[in-house]
Specification:
Helix content is 39%, strand content 16%. It is an alpha+beta fold. The protein has a domain of 99 residues: 60s Ribosomal Protein L30, Chain: A (2-Layer Sandwich). A 4-stranded mixed beta sheet has the order 1-4-2-3. α4 crosses α5. The longest helix is centred in the first third of the chain and has 34 residues. It is flat. It starts with a helix and ends in a 21-residue tail after the last helix.
C-alpha cells in the first residue's frame, strides 16, 4: 500500500521538531561539561596516584637512636686506628644531627684500666670529629663469653626512615576465591626495600625537606672571567689533558 505524501511531510516535520528539542536539551549539558573541564584542580589531577609506592611507604624524619659497635684491638691501649676513625666519623654524625649525651656501653668483666683507656680514647676521637658531648658510661653483662663483645656508642638524633615496616602482605597475590589482585596494580610491598635503602643512604635527613644554602661565590674565578671579558678574550676555562684541549678528545 503506497504511503500518502501528507504522511511523509508530517514525518519529516516531526523529526525536525524532535531534533530541535534534543539540541535544546543537550546545550545545557555541553555547557556544564565545559565548565567542569575549566574548573579542574590541576594539583589533584597531576598528583601521585594513591597506589604509588611513595604513598604506601613514605620516607619520614624521626628522632631515633644512632648506634656504633667497635671492637678495639686488645693488644693496643685505648683505640686502634680503625676504631678511632670510626668513632671520629660517629662524632661528625653527632655534630650534624644529634643532641644530648652519647651513651657508651662497655662489656662487663674487662679490666678497669683497659676500660678507662678506651673511654679516654673515645672522647678524644669524638673531639676529632667535632663533637664534645657528655659521655654516660655504663656496663652491660656478657651473654656469651665465647663471642666478641663490642663497645657500643649511641645517641639520639634525626634520621630518615620509612613510616612502616617492609615485608607486610595484607593481600594475597594468588587469590583464587576473589578478584583481588586482578587489577594489574603494584602489590603492597612493592618499592618498600627501595625506599628503605634510599632513606638509609641519606647523610643529612634535612636535605629531604629543603635544599642547603648556597656557598659563597668563587671570587677568583669571577674576577678572571670579568678580566677576560674586558680584554675581549674567551672567559671560559680552557681545560688541558696532556697538552691537548679536552674538547678535542674523542673526536678523531
Amino acid at each position: 500500500m503506497p504511503i500518502s505524501p501528507h504522511l511523509k511531510v508530517a514525518g519529516r516535520a516531526g523529526r525536525r521538531f524532535s531534533t530541535r528539542i534534543a539540541l535544546r536539551l543537550l546545550a545545557p549539558l555541553g555547557v556544564l561539561t565545559l565548565a567542569g573541564c575549566a574548573t579542574a584542580d590541576r594539583m589533584k589531577t597531576s598528583s601521585i596516584p594513591m597506589d604509588d609506592y611513595r604513598n604506601r611507604h613514605p620516607i619520614v624524619i624521626a628522632e631515633t637512636a644512632h648506634k656504633l659497635d667497635i671492637f678495639p684491638a686488645p693488644q693496643e691501649p685505648g683505640l686502634d686506628g680503625r676504631s678511632a676513625a670510626q668513632v671520629a666519623e660517629f662524632g661528625r654524625l653527632y655534630q650534624a644531627t644529634g643532641h644530648g649525651p652519647i651513651y657508651v656501653f662497655v662489656p662487663a668483666g674487662e679490666r678497669v684500666a683497659l676500660s678507662r683507656d678506651t673511654i679516654t680514647a673515645i672522647g678524644q676521637a669524638l673531639a676529632q670529629g667535632g663533637a664534645r658531648p657528655v659521655l654516660q658510661v655504663s656496663r652491660y653483662p656478657i651473654s656469651n663469653p665465647d663471642l666478641a663483645s663490642p663497645v657500643r656508642l649511641s645517641f639520639t638524633g634525626l634520621r630518615s626512615k620509612i613510616a612502616d615496616s617492609c615485608g607486610l602482605w595484607p593481600s594475597d597475590l594468588a587469590s583464587g576465591s576473589s578478584v583481588e589482585g586482578w587489577e594489574n596494580k603494584p602489590y603492597w610491598n612493592f618499592g618498600c626495600s627501595y625506599q628503605n635503602a634510599l632513606a638509609e643512604q641519606v647523610a643529612d635527613p634535612r636535605d629531604l625537606l629543603a635544599p642547603r644554602a648556597e656557598d659563597p661565590a668563587d671570587t677568583q674565578m669571577r674576577s678572571r672571567a670579568i678580566a677576560n671579558l674586558r680584554k675581549g678574550t674567551d672567559p671560559s676555562t680552557d681545560w688541558k689533558t696532556k697538552n691537548t684541549s679536552i674538547s678535542g678528545v674523542g673526536t678523531q
